[in-house]
Amino acid sequence: MSMNRAEMKTIWVVIAAIILFGLLQLGHDWLEDLFISINRYAVHSIMEALAFAICFALLILGWMVFVPTLCRQRLMTAALFTAIGFLGLLHALSGSGMPLHDPIIGDTPSLLLNWISQWVGALGLLVVFSLDNPIVRPRARIYAIISVLCIVTVVSLLVFQTNHWNQSVIDALAPFQQSSTLLLYAAAISIILYRHRIERPESMLTIVQALIWLFFAKLEESLGTGPESVQALIGDVFKLAGYYCLLKGIYLVLIEEPYRRQKKTEARINYLAYHDELTALPNRRLFADRVRAEMARAQHNRSRFALLWLDVDRFKTINDSLGHAFGDRLLVAVAERLCKFSEKPENVFRLGGDEFTVLLAGIRGEKEAEEAAQRLVELFEQPIKVGPSSFHITSSVGMALFPDDGNSLDLLLQNADTAMYSAKETRNSWKRYETKMNLKAKEKLLLENDLRIALELGQFHLAYQPLIDLEHETLVGAEALLRWSHPQRGEIPPSEFIPLCEENGFILPLGEWVLRNACFQMKSWQDNGYPMIILSVNLSIRQFRQHDLDARIAKVLEETGLDPQWLELEITESIMADVAYATEMLERLKKLGLRISIDDFGTGYSSLYYLKRFPIDKLKIDRSFVNDVLTDRNDAAIVSGISAMARNLNLTVTAEGVESEGQVAFLKELKCQEAQGFFFSRPVSPEKFLALFDMDKGKTDSKETAG
Fold it and tell me: Does residue 402 sit in the same domain as residue 260?
């Protein structure tokens, strides 16, 4: 076990005190000859005066310094050594030849005052460092000093007003006083070392050193015959060494260390005021200061600089699927990569969330800034390592130049942010700010505001697209699709408003509205005698991350009366990122009796292992593979592979985006069970879907008649 410097010093103090004590005993006769011509009472009085001065210094530490942060230990130590100082001073003044000495009574009052002073000191130090150390009110100083003065006055009166002392009792009491004082010092040392057994700071070890010197001071004094003995004088020297170490230790414990902690805290607060706690990058406040300074420099030098505003694509999905702890680690990794990208790491900032900025100072022209923006996008082509795994992420970067795209901090920031959101429309790209982008940003804001009231005003409605059994060419299901009829803008495609809903969290109430209304509609069709078919409803990743999702769905089914076996939930492959949570939630949903399908299969976190582990009923092949299945050999191979794999796993396969008879024939050849797309029907209203029921019934009747 390694020891720090203060611990080694304490050990050397113990060794030095023992050696010095032993040498003094061996050289006792020599010391007697050395001090024979010296007035020992005068030396003793000088020593007591010095001790009183140190006690007074301890009083000042507790009375005047850092009063707002006054703590119990500092106050009690100040009060304790006020009492010790006055008792020691009275002890010195009542010695032989001193003003308070009474020849009739003798040296007994001086001896008793010395004993009481030592008892009070040893017991007081034990108590002080055994208690907790809370902050106390400054006015407590008044109560403490008044109490000390009263106690010292009472003790002094009792000692000096007594006219006769039984010397035999005093002599018998001496060994007890000596042994008890030594035991109290030893106990105080033990308590301090035990309370700081895990970490022993220098300040506390300095107090231990003081107690060691006081211990040997009392031990040396106990070997003498009175104040005039050589042992008493040596004891006074030891006591002064102890008082000095105590003064130093009290200063370290109660003044310097709190001051250091305060300065460290202030430095930490100042650092956090200008830096991001997670990534240690400069934050928005320091960013604003740096940009203002750069603007002043650019105006003076008639130069230009660029702001690159970077946002991690799909970061909310990463947070929702893998958890915020993983998201934080990913942001730290992104920050480290950005610092390596910039020639000046101090010009990389985190503005909040997954948004970062890079300040390019003193650029020579637009081309240099554009090349830097492209390099910044390409920076994330290599996977980012987070823990033992590597992850591919992309970024969207917006660029604004000073003074071309803004001559003030707010305008420059706003335009860089606008350019970044424009780049997000395509993702993994960069865009420079253009004036027309503000119009798009304004439209997006207005659209987001309209979203909030669209549900209340009944502007949303559902359309249903049929799912067809390819082998029997019969209707087997309907997928509920959300549509928005805006009073001014007309029909707004889901590709415009669904990402907004995901971004602002509105997808949660909206998704529940879709589920409830679709279930009501399917139950209505069933009650009216239409064939039993599967209702397919899309579930967003944010809905899936709701820990009470199964309870919410169970409540909807109970309210609508729809049997769970006719409800199929469509989820995306992104749920596979958090395997443990996805497995648990899917099993809870399956217990309700629902069907589970993976939508847009092949475009996300595809894994055969996950398909085997998850309780899934169906795979829906993404339309991007089906579109060119007749002309692209790769797409044909992918669709063929997915179909074969699904059959081996006893999963149903549905092909999305079927638009031609040739695609239908190809899918039938692969034994793909189901399909949906414009070839069969576009999404239609509930009323028009009834015609599909009738058409399907007609086909069935024709086949039965032909058979």
Answer: no
